[in-house]
Amino acid sequence: MLHQLVKQRRVVPFIGAGFSLHLGLPSWHALIDYIAQTMDYDPRIFELEGNALQLAEYYMLDRGRIGQLRSKLDNWLNAPTIDISKSDQHMLLVELNAPVIYTTNYDTLIERAFDAKSVPYKKIVTIADIGEAVTDDTQVVKFHGDLSLDESLVLAESHYFDRLAFESPLDIKLRSDMLGKSLVFIGYGFQDINMRYMWYRLMKMWKQGTGYADDRQPPAFYVGTAVGPVQKKILRSWNILCIELDPVDPSAHLVAILKGLI
Prior knowledge:
This protein is of the alpha/beta class.
C-alpha cells in the first residue's frame, strides 16, 4: 500500500530528530547542558529544575532573546563538516519525490540533501512562503521554525503551548496536506505527548470536517523501534500503521525500506 501511495505522490514524510541521529548531531540533553553553562549552573542541578521546554523557557525569560542560543544551535546542527551526501536516508528522502516534507528539526540537512542532488525544492517557514509555493517542487516545511528566523522557532514551553491551538498558518497547511494523503512519521517517539496530541487533533478535525469514515482517508504510518502491543492498538485506533525497525541497526533497516519505496 505504501509503495503505491508513494508512486501516486500521496505520501507526506514527517521527519523528527531521530532521522539524523546517525550523523552525530547533539541531543536535547547536550543543549540543556549548554544553557546551564551559559547561566552559571551546574548542568546536573539545572536539569532537576524542569524539563527541556521549561529550561529553554527560563533561558528566554532571563536573557530576553534567543539569539545566542540560536547561533549555538546553528553551529552545532549545520556544521560544514557534515557531508550530507554520505547519508543514504537523506538522499533517499529526496528520491521519494514527495509533494511535501514536514520536519520539526532546526537543521538544514534535508535542504542540503536536495541541493546535493540538484533537485529543486521550496522551503516553507512563513505564510508568505506558502503563497509563493506555486510549482510542483517538493515543499520542505520547517514545522518548528528555521534558524534563519528567530521568531519562527518553536523551542520553549510557551512556543509549544501556542502551537497546541493548531491555528498557525503551518498548522492550517498541515490539515490541508493530510487530506487524501498519508503522513509517514520517521524519527519520532510516539511517547511524545505533543506528537500524540497533534495527531489526535488532526484526526478529530478530519472526522468533523469531512464527515467521512476512517476508511476514506489513507492510513498514516509510524516508522520506528520498540512499538509494543499496547501502543500498536492505540495507534491503529488513530488510523496509524506501525512499521517496526530492526533495533540492532535501525538506520540500515530504514535505508532498506526507503529503497523499496522508490
